[in-house]
Design goal:
Layout lengths: L28 H5 L3 H14 L3 E2 H8 L3 H13 L3 E5 L5 E5 L1 H18 L8
Antiparallel strand pairs: 1-3, 2-3
Amino acid sequence: MLQGAPLPFGEAAIYRKRADPAVPRRLSRAVRRDPNLFVVARLLERLWRKRAPIVKTRLQVAANVNYDIFSKYLAWCLARGLVALEDSPDGHERVTITEKGKSAYRRLLDWLNDYVHGRGTTPP
């Protein structure tokens, strides 16, 4: 490739930034490097509003993503301590938000409201 020439569209992601080593390798490059903050916000919002552990499938539907993408974002959130998994008596794994996740949701919501929507509101 010529030095100084623009990168082809498909190669641009390779040169962005290095992946966070704390995130499991099985995650896709896109989730490891640049997660869609709107998806993260939808996951955390649903958990924050429910205030109780949620079955993975219901959380996936609330986030409005397919299950493969949801699994990657769930692993990303787990690796950062934003959510935790709990076993329930009915045999289903349920997802719950941690205190770190609540704090992250508040900060993310403030940022989205200030810079994307142009207004500032924070949940109680």
